[in-house]
């Protein structure tokens, strides 16, 4: 596994070497984030920094430059009293060796790193609030030009280097995403008896997340568990509502397994059986999802995938008597936007909404090796015609291949009959 990080660092260096100017990338561990007073939120590693180094703990920075023969790893020497509270640090030497990096240990890494930026013209910095990389960049920017001769004068976002790398998943990454998807579904499946017992949304969310943890995963993002009208709120969080007979329940959740995420959305009838209207709604969204997925292959614009879903949703809304008119005219004026107000999906990987300008960017192009979610939905904030206030969304995680795609969620039962069968105990 360590080889992967060395290779990634090498690729960054090769990218920098394409420039005639002395250029460097500086990335740091994410800082601790205060929750209140002297307690912090659980520590979460920075994805870019992790991607290049495999390091998941705080206090490190890496400098990769086209005029340095090796990368430099800067480690913050913890104060003695910190060790009492947080435990002894790992072997810095071993971590640096694994990355084939020069090790610099310092109690104030920022000051130390600055020395190594002398002679660098272009600096790719990390736009993470409180990171050593951003703090140092801001300090340099504030220093009057005549006082920073020989220091970087051009500052670029590190996404310009990292985005192109992280968007394309290697086989080991796809394997971890698939494993995360599997854990997500196994956990989802295990909460189905609770749905039929009509507990509260929050109990379902808690049990789901417990399921992730006992399967060796983490909670990838706050689970959305919304029943009835709640499901029409796109990012509904922390629902306390009790499930009601005859309503639909939407669950959008994802386990994080060895740093990689799954992200799936499913819909269940609370009493285990879809009524005829729910069946109709469900099938429209299912058809929209699968029509969109059918369009995916290397080189396809996201707009094409989005439109395939929007067209099915539009035609469904016409059949429901909610929209009136010709499909082509309705598509042109985007009449569906009132009921399908979001994009078709996002890249997925180390982050739920992974790096890359794919989200809400219909002109973006899907390429072989990308992992992208497809998640059309229909939302009714209030009773609309014969449809009661509710929300439906179905979401799969897709690997783009040369001639099509591989649906990492293809093993999940999804027809109306399949879902009812899953809920039969
Ligand atoms: Mn998603």
Give the distance, in angstroms, between the N- and C-terminal Cα atoms: 42 Å
Number of helices: 14
Which of globular, elongated, flat, extended, rod-shaped describes the shape? globular
Please count the beta strands (DSSP E, at least 2 residues each).
19
**What structural class results from the helix and strand content?**
alpha+beta
- Radius of gyration computed on alpha carbons: 24 Å
Low-pLDDT sequence parts: none
Bound molecules: manganese (II) ion
Strand order across the largest sheet: 6-5-4-1-7-8
Give a written overview of the molecule:
The chain is α+β, with helices and mostly antiparallel strands. The chain is built from 14 helices and 19 strands. The longest helix is centred in the middle third of the chain and has 20 residues, at 171-190. It is globular. It starts with a helix and ends with a helix. The mean pLDDT is 95. The structure holds manganese (II) ion.
């Amino acid at each position: 596994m360590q080889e992967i990080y060395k290779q990634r660092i090498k690729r960054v260096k090769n990218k920098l070497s394409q420039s005639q100017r002395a250029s460097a990338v500086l990335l740091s561990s994410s800082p601790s984030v205060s929750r209140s007073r002297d307690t912090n939120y659980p520590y979460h590693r920075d994805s870019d920094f992790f991607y290049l180094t495999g390091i998941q703990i705080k206090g490190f920075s890496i400098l990769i430059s086209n005029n340095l023969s090796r990368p430099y790893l800067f480690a913050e020497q913890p104060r003695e009293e910190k060790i009492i509270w947080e435990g002894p640090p790992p072997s810095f030497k071993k971590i640096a060796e694994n990355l084939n990096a020069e090790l610099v240990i310092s109690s104030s890494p920022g000051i130390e790193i600055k020395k190594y930026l002398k002679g660098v013209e272009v600096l790719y910095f990390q736009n993470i609030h409180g990171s050593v990389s951003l703090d140092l960049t801001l300090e340099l920017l504030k220093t009057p030009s005549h006082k920073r001769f020989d220091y970087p004068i051009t500052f670029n976002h590190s996404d310009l280097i990292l985005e192109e790398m992280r968007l394309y998943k290697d086989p080991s990454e796809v394997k971890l995403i698939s494993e995360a998807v599997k854990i997500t579904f196994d956990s989802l499946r295990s909460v189905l008896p609770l749905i039929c017992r009509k507990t509260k949304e929050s109990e379902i969310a808690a049990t789901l997340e417990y399921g992730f943890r006992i399967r060796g995963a983490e909670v990838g993002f706050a689970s959305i568990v919304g029943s009835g009208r709640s499901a029409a709120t796109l990012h509904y969080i922390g629902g306390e509502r009790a499930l009601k007979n005859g309503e639909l329940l939407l669950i959008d959740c994802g386990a994080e397994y060895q740093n990689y995420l799954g992200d799936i959305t499913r819909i269940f009838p609370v009493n285990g059986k879809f009524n005829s209207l729910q069946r109709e709604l469900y099938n429209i969204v299912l058809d929209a999802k699968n029509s969109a997925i059918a369009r995916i292959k290397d080189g396809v614009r996201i707009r094409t995938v989005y439109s395939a879903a929007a067209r099915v949703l539009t035609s469904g809304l016409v059949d429901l008597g909610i929209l009136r008119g010709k499909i082509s005219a309705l598509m042109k004026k985007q009449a569906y936007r009132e009921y399908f107000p979001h994009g078709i999906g996002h890249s997925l990987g180390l982050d739920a909404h992974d790096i890359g300008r794919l989200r809400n960017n219909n002109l973006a192009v899907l390429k072989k090796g990308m992992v992208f979610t497809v998640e059309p939905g229909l939302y009714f904030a209030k009773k609309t015609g014969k449809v009661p206030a509710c929300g439906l969304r179905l979401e799969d995680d897709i690997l783009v291949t040369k001639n099509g795609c591989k649906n990492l969620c293809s093993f999940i039962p999804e027809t109306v009959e399949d879902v009812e069968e899953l809920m039969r105990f």
